[in-house]
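Job type: complex structure
Entries:
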Amino acid sequence: MRYLPLDKSEREAMLTRIGAPDIEALFADIPADQRIHGLLDMPLAKSEMAVERAMMTIANRSVAAGSAPFFVGSGAYRRHIPATVDHLIQRSEFLTSYTPYQPEIAQGTLQVLFEFQTQVAALTGMEVANASMYDGSTACGEAMLMAHRLTRRNRSVISGGLHPQYADVCATLAHMAGDRIIRLPPDLKASEDIAAAINDETSCVIVQTPDFFGNPRDLTPIAAAAHARGALLIAVFTDPVALGALRSPGEMNADIAVGEGQGLGNALNFGGPYVGLFATLAKNVRQMPGRLAGETVDAEGRRSFVLTLSTREQHIRREKATSNICTNSGLCALAFSIHLTLLGAVGLERLAKVNHANAVQLAERLSAIPSVEVINTHFFNEFVMRTPRPAAELIEALARRGVIGGLPVSRLLTGAGLDDCIIVASTETNTNDDRVAYAQALADCLR
Amino acid sequence: MPEIRYTKDHEYVRIEGGEGVVGISEHAQQQLGDVVFAETPPVGKALKRGDPAAVVESVKAASDVFAPASGDVIAANSEVESTPGLINEDALGRGWLFRIKLADPSELSGLMDESSYAEFLKTLG
Amino acid sequence: MNVQGRPTRPETAATPTGETFTGNRGLDMEEALIFESGRFDATGVDIDEPPPFQSRLGPHARQSAIELPGLTEPEAVRHYVRLSRNNYSIDAGIYPLGSCTMKHNPRLNEKMARLPGFADVHPLQPVSTAQGALEIVEALSNALLTMTGMDAVAMSPKAGAHGELCGMMAIKAAIEARGEGETRRVVLVPDSAHGTNPATAALIGYSVRSIPAGEDGIVSVEAVRSALAPDVAAIMLTNPNTCGLFEREIVGIADAVHEAGAYFYCDGANFNAIVGKTRPGDLGIDAMHINLHKTFSTPHGGGGPGAGPVALSSRLAPYAPVPFVKREGGALRLVEHTEGRPSFGRMCAFHGQMGMFVRALSFILSHGADGLRQASEDAVLSANYIRASLNDVMSASFAERPCMHEALFDDRWLKDTGLTTLDFAKAMIDEGYHPMTVYFPLIVHGAMLIEPTESESKASLDLFIMTLRDLAIAARAGERERFQSAPILAPRRRLDETRAARQPVLRWTKPQPA
């Protein structure tokens, strides 16, 4: 078997040295009644060719986003990733290395993390960032818990513009920990009065911008309202490229900024693996979860990097840890970092501009169709479209015509009275032909 | 010469009048390695003997420091928060953690004096 | 007070060896930060300027500049290639980290994960257009059920610790459903457990009661019975345990736990030892997370991403989180809302680590039933071979019984040498090896936990053994310098971790003009 180097005579020689009569003797501690004597009820080993064939058959049963005009966002974004990124992350030393616990032979990983942390801090306008979390939604939940620790309160206020699945994650954590959570109703037009929900028991306010419905928000007055009551502002974003065009959480006085980093360097992958971005103010660093790479020197005085402030983490603090997290999303953080290194601020701003321009052109084209309404006044690369047809079936009808038109809001928000709304996203990967095809198909469906 | 008492948990309390100055022992600081962080209790906090009162961290370990005796915290050493290495350099002097008003001096009779603690350390091997 | 510390900075400054103008040493190269070598006004990606359009950003446009450098492709490639060369990796050599299962990462897995039908599928595109993706979830789920003999699998957890959280949340939901949420607030955890176990329990409001391991390194039924009480919600055991031993009283423990009305969580980090040899469901386990990045070869990527699906017993299956995949008629449906089920809710956005599912399934299909059993046997054989080959020069812990896939040593054999486990580990680096796991588990002094996995050839194992013998003999013979100054030949000498923690510098900052 191609992955198992030992052969029969070697196994025998090893058993002899051990002094065991056979391999089963080494499994003697498994109670007899619970030992499997034959093989598991599964097919036998397959050649590489056979596995490829089986997997490709399954792969062909999905519609790849690149094979059709594609307009779904809502937390994950189809990006053109430069070819360099995927080549570099497949270098053995990045792909098959472990967490850098022996820093002398892991400076590659550690320096990348230090650069990544700097990039995330710069992008979000915050002072310090960690070496990544699993994804944006769990980063959001962890930010909520961090706010509870900092304020010693446990009541969170969640904007009606937060991605519903992010809000669900926060709700699950809150319920399990016995914390209170106020979820404002879905806020289609960014018109909610979030300040009114903040009181002296509030630990944090969690607001997404651009929000789930595509509306960019001014967080500055919300930050002021929160701070006046001793609460913290947690700013959330789901597309890092948005930060190339819009005011950053730091500029708007957020205390913690969290978001999804998939939109740079990482493929859609049906929802994972992604990479959570987490940044805060320097004074909060001891309560920040996740790994941290820090600068130091070695015995020869050479600049070096090492995982630091580890006593926050579970392997040391055990039940007093800031969280139970063990892993960061290393390889995905690397991909993010390489993509952003290639872009630089100049490239990021241009990329953001193209995203916005494509969305603007799409919105114009779609709203020119009678009975189609684009709800948003302002947006970055996502907006809400409303039509007379129920959104879920309209999306299926568009799919049958070869257009993947967006997310029906009702898929994520049931019973919110938004069953006629679709969230449409457009990135730099959309062409004019895509837009024409969408408008055509939509007009057909609405006839 | 102020009296000093030790707990089995390697905290010390130096008795000064009706007050106790608390820190970690020389042995503890050696075992812990370089101290990188110390957190002292807030002034005014009421502690009972055995309550977790402070935290001392090295790179690889985090230790709770428990109150060796009951009392209200009347002072905390802000120097160790900015310079945690003081705990290594001078655990019994400038590396003190906090000071309490002793609520019940009779509690101290249950603790070890200097020579008993030295004997105790030998048994740890 | 916890006083298990060790030196965290080099004791003396080291003399630099072979100084060069560049600081490079042959192929061993220094590399600046991108902020030092890149230009802040440049970009390495060609992006066409869009035709004029009416901005809809309103008052929200970014005002301040982002200070990030761009590198052209050749500069970026050189930067990352040079950085990568400072890393050890499994592809380069044995990575004997106990409980990490650093097995070979098959390249077929990478090829399959990149098929557009897997990689270029959006989690929220219409389910009718993502049937292949759902089939992967179903296929892997079925394979895991077969291997564990359990009833349901929660596929969404993003890592092992996330899976622990999932399992414990399911247990908490089950207890609350019985109306015992207020009374059962304690979780039993052995003192040999990995720190994530008590951290997870505490995160959801449980207090932890520690169970000591016996002299023989395992948890006894008596110890569990003494700790069980009406306030206990669950026990969290690792099996095989962190000492590399099979918890041979596990069935009795499971019975006792269930009789007491509590649940049995199993940390599946060491599943690699027992796939195809026994099924966790048959042992009485209610929830077990599986680390796809350990047992099922998905790459560690320098720290992540992982994936931690959780197998659940029939007692806990109703409480599984959303989403999950369900076959209805001829098609696969994705259940994304709890819809009146007692599910405890959602743990993360979207559906789980699909990219890792493809890789794990590719591994499982490649090995098949016979290959999977052979892999477990080879993993256990190799660990015992290493232990038998070193036991005369080093002190193995709990050596009276066979170990499973990892061999545990302690530092008794280093007594009187003036050397520590850390010194020994650092000397291995100069020999071209990544050290084994050190100082874990905590119940043994100066622990050294070696897990070779099934991917090592006998030649590789033999060289590793001979090297460790050479080092051990040198240590016992009184050689100190070789160990205390190690590593000398790695890209870096020992680091000042004290400084990194006392004066944290966590990002590059632009130097201020003097």
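Summary: The first strand of chain B starts at residue 3 and ends at 6. Residues 3-104 of chain B form a domain with the OB fold (Dihydrolipoamide Acetyltransferase, E2P) fold (CATH 2.40.50.100).
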